[in-house]
Amino acid sequence: MWTATLVGYRQELHYLRAENEALTVAANPEGEVVAFKAIHARDRTVDKGQILVFKDYVMNHGNAYDNLTGICVAPTKGLYLFSGQICTEVGQTLFFGLMVNFNAYMRDLPHDTSSRECSTFTEPIVLSEGDRVWVQAFRDNENIYEDEHRWSSFAGILIRNL
């Protein structure tokens, strides 16, 4: 009796592993890994139109993000997921947005009069090969706040090739 149950579990495990592998290949048929996360804003004071450059890589698989320009270039057509965090000092604002090929895809204006504010974003975006994505400031002379507990960041990952 126990042997039959164990054999059944092994067969089910084998089936689930094969199904998982098939789904993984279907989601990303070329097996290309594109994933980056960069932290720490290079400039703490930013002006209108300025790209926020996150200078320190946590990871950069596929080399899609350039920490000198602050721009992610899609290496392949696909569904991507971008996220980030921008922090401001008490009583200050920083009007920023996620840009795709010079078009605002998302905008935010964090502001808190009683504490430091960190604003986060998560955006799914379908990109074509060569599309460019970055975080940009929309007003002059605004400040990014960072300390040992609050880091600004920008991250992206290819979810599925299209």
Structure notes:
This protein is α+β, with helices and mostly antiparallel strands. It has 2 domains: 1-30; 32-161, Jelly Rolls (Sandwich), CATH 2.60.120. It is built from 1 helix and 12 strands. The protein has one helix spanning 2-27; strands spanning 35-41, 45-46, 54-61, 65-66, 71-73, 78-88, 96-100, 103-108, 117-127, 132-137, 142-143, 153-161. The strands form 3 sheets. The protein has a 5-stranded antiparallel sheet with strand order 3-1-12-6-9, with no helix packed on it. The radius of gyration is 20 Å and the shape is elongated. It starts with a helix and ends with a strand. The model has no long low-confidence stretch (mean pLDDT 86).
